[in-house]
Structure formats: structure tokens, C-alpha cells
Queue: 2 jobs
Job 1
Amino acid sequence: MSDATAPQAQTGGALLTVEKLERHFEGLKAVDGISFTVGPHEVVSIIGPNGSGKTTTLNLVTGTIPANGGTITLDGADIGHADTARIAEDGVARTFQNGRVFATLSVADNIEVGIHSTLRASRPFRRLSRMFLLRWIPLLAELYIAIIGTPASRRERREIDATISAEIERFEARLGPRRDDPAYSLSYANRRRTEIARALALKPKLLVLDEPTAGMNQSETAEVLRQLLELKAEGQAILLVEHKLDLVMSVSDRVIVMDGGRIIAQGRPEQVRRDPAVIEAYLGRRRGLGGEDLV
Ligand SMILES: Nc1ncnc2c1ncn2[C@@H]1O[C@H](COP(=O)(O)OP(=O)(O)OP(=O)(O)O)[C@@H](O)[C@H]1O
Ligand SMILES: [Mg+2]
């Protein structure tokens, strides 16, 4: 049986370490003192009933909202108080539960938005943009380079184009013919693929996905599973929230089960599947995830 409170064996070499993380909304403890890790090449999934705190956990890890307590470290560095841009630069890329793409931008431009924060040659002095009084310096430099260009910025431009093409190629049959189409003209599944491609273009140390198959049919879900397995084979660390248990059980090295803002179980998929606390959380309340039987 898994032990929800035991520290994970791989904490020492963990990529992401979350300790006693807390977030409340006017008295509601959405995330109530949870601790977990994600190893450098590990796929960890968070499952749990609606409202159990999964998305809030991802929002905290990616800096979308601040925590009320606890610590978050990435590669040993404290990111608990960093903003989303810094966390993205540090190597955490995410997608959103409801899907977020820029409707009027093309597929390629949507992917490029994901890389912008990592540009070096095209964005000199970019660290100054965090200083209110000096923000004009990087803005002017960026404008100058955009108009005139430098050998380094032109080289970077070629690298960006290669990254965009590589990510589109990952979804070739789907996104290839739609590279220059505006996102609003895409199918729902292709918008979600574009969002995943944007996150991957950042070449993140940790890919954070919130219900990437929500709203997808069975064959589209199977396609996402294949792509996740490919990423896993490439060594990509993933923190995944997903309701479709078949997918979770197929792709995850470890599964964390949340209920009421707490972790009630964590362990290997087959351990979690048989954990009485997990069965109680779903079946005891007659609410299996996606109607699936956990036992
Ligand atoms: N911005 C917010 N303001 C107030 N309450 C919030 C906010 N965000 C989340 N909550 C509440 O926190 C709890 C956890 O929400 P969260 O979105 O993390 O759940 P979830 O596990 O992702 O659920 P689902 O499976 O439905 O996506 C819920 O009770 C939710 O209503
Ligand atoms: Mg959610």
C-alpha cells in the first residue's frame, strides 16, 4: 500500500520538490500542506475528484498564483516566490485545463510566444525589464535589433524557426498543414496540440499538463497517450493532471491522489489503483473518475 505521508525515496535528486504547500481561498483549503517530488525523468500524475486541488497545485508550482505556505524548489533553487515568467525561464512549461491559445495568432506564432522569454540575442538587457525605471533600455534594444538585426539575432531567428518546425513536426499530420492558420480556425483538439507544442518549444525541464485530453474523443486521447509515451521515452519529466485513468495508468511512473486539498495516497500506478483510501475517495462516494472502475 502506498503511504501518502512518507517522503519520496528520490527526494535527494529530485527535479521538483514541493513541501508543505498551502493555498486557501477565503477559508477553503484548496491545497492543504502537500509534499511531493518529481524526478528528473519522471512522469508523475495527480488524480482526484473534482475540486480536490489538482489545478491549484499546478497553479502554485508554475507561479500562476502565490502560495500561503510551504516551499517549491526546482533543481534545488527556490522558485516558491518567483513569477510565472521567471519560472518558465527556469524550465517549467505548462498547458491549461481549459486550453489557452492566442486566437488571432497562427499556429507558428502561438508556438513562438512560448519561446520568447528564452531569447538572448534578440532581447539584450532583458533582466533590466524587471526594474521599473530601466525598462525602456531592453525595449529600445529589442526594437533596434528587430529592425536592424545583428548576426547573433539572425542566428537566433534561424534557431527559433527550427524549433517551431520541430514542434509542428511532432504533430505533423495535424498541425503541419495548418502552420499559418489562425488558432481560432482550428479544431478544439488542434488548439490543444498547439498549446502542448508551445510548452514543448521551451524545451522545459518539467512539462506541466492540466487535463491535456479534456474534451477529446477516444482516438484523439489515444494519440495524446502515444505522444506522452514518446516524450517519456525521450526522458521528459512531466507533471500531469488527468481524469482519464487508463491514460494515467499507462504513462505514469508514479500517481498522486488528492482529495480535499490533501494527498491521500501516492505510489506506483498499480499500488494506487488498489489503495483502499483511493477506492473510498471515489467509489465510497459513488464517483469513479470518468465512470471508470478503480479496482
Ligand atoms: N480562484 C479561486 N477562488 C476561489 N476558490 C477557488 C479558486 N480556485 C480554486 N478554487 C476552489 O479550490 C478548490 C480546488 O479547486 P481546483 O481547481 O484546484 O480543483 P481540481 O482538482 O483541479 O478540480 P477539477 O477536477 O474539477 O478540475 C475548489 O473547491 C475550487 O472551487
Ligand atoms: Mg482542475
Note: The first helix runs from residue 54 to 61.
Job 2
Amino acid sequence: MNLQMRPSKCFLYETMSRALSEITSGVGVDVASGNLKNRWMFKTELYVGIDINETRLRSGLKTHPTPDTVAAVADLRVMDAFPTGAATAVVSTNTLHHIDRTNRVSVVESLVRMTAPGGVLFCTTPLDTAFPGVLAALERSFDDVKCVYYRNVFSRAYEELLAPPGRAERGAIAATKPFRLLAWVVSRLEHLTKNRPAGCTFAFILCRRKSSPASESFSLSHLPRLDERLYDARRPPPSLVASVRPPG
Ligand SMILES: C[S@@+](CC[C@H](N)C(=O)[O-])C[C@H]1O[C@@H](n2cnc3c(N)ncnc32)[C@H](O)[C@@H]1O
């Protein structure tokens, strides 16, 4: 039983961990992984956490000290340093809504680029005006695209009342075991609405490629290291590169 403070998170992590449990080979890439808190869901041979926040990555690497866990500091809007078609699972959850709507499709396209033939891409995205573009980009690239809708009216009411962002005192109640159990009970209602976007505010999109020719091997060895298992995949923005190019 996955006990979270928010019913929508209980539902999401339960759905995601079930989907990820089937992917046991190759490399799993967790884009905007934060402190690697979703590491436990990945059953791939190697896990790569990517985030812009180096401190969170370092903290996650401390919690997961084994060589099958590595991380890279990068901005998910500039992920050209990562290999093409080499990750068996590419996942990005609870993050795309932080990206400007105009940039969201290009971020999703880089997740698509990194996914191996025969691999899977799982991401969450808000049901806002950028959603049709995100979905169309995924449908162009994958044989099988399935949306699971979540954060329904019951979850939102619970979260508004007991776990609103920025209201620490109410969050403290929601963090207690009895309320986490209550959140789990409310999350059962997400199963009633998961096939319909109406009334939900987020989609968890599960994409699979059927074709599985030999894929590229995943390597970060071309990147500078910040630590034994921490790579630096930050790239200067193209405008900056252009402005420092020598004249002539
Ligand atoms: C809400 S957390 C999500 C963590 C985790 N994926 C989850 O499902 O709980 C959002 C993460 O996105 C990262 N982030 C925000 N903007 C980013 C960017 N432009 N590039 C890379 N990471 C970014 C933040 O540092 C933070 O760790």
C-alpha cells in the first residue's frame, strides 16, 4: 500500500510502480528526479536521475550508494548531452507543469528522442491548453499511447482541505499515518474516473514502442564528472555559445 499525503499521489505512484515493475532490463532515466525519491520503483539494471538541482541529486546518491544508481545535473529543456534511443524507460513525473506551455512539446520530444526502440516513456502532464500538443507529439512517435486521468474532484477537495501547497500547518496533519490512510482510501475513487478526462486535472501518459531492433548503448562517459556517480550535463544555451564565438 502506497501511503502518501495526497490521494492523487497515492494513485499516481501505485499506477507508475506497477507499470515500471515490468521493465527489468537496460537503463531507466528519471527526468527531474529531485532527490531520487522514485528510485525504488525502477527495476532496470541502471538508474539515471537527472535534475537541475545538484544538491538534491547529491542527497539522493547518498541514500542510494550502489553503482547501479547514477545522476546527472542538467536542465530538462536542454538534454542534447544524453544519448539517443538508448534508455529502456524514460520517466518524468510531477514536473512538466513547471515548464512553460510553449516549451513543453520540445521537452517531451527530447524525452522521446532518448527512449530506445522497444522502450517505454511515462510522463505526467496537466490537462491544460498544452495537453493536445503533448499528446500529439507522443502519438506520432509511439505505437501504443494510453492516458490515465487523475487528480479528480475528490482528490482535489481532500488536498485543498488538508494538504494545500504552502500551508505547512495543514500539511502536518495530512502527514500523519491515519490521514495518509485516509488519503489512500480517497485515492480509490481515482479508479472510477481514470478513463475520463472530465473533472480531472492531470494525465499520466504511458507510451510503448513495439519495434525492438538492437538499441544504442547508454553511456555518460563523454560527460565531465562532478563526483564518482554524478555527471555534469549542463550545456550553455545556444545564444551564449554564439556570443562567445571568436570573430572571423
Ligand atoms: C516536484 S519535483 C518532482 C520530483 C519527482 N519527479 C516526483 O515525481 O516527485 C520537480 C523537480 O523538477 C526539477 N526541475 C524543475 N525545473 C527543472 C529544469 N528546468 N530542469 C531539470 N529539473 C528541473 C526540480 O529541481 C525538482 O527536483
Note: The chain has one domain: 9-150+202-234.
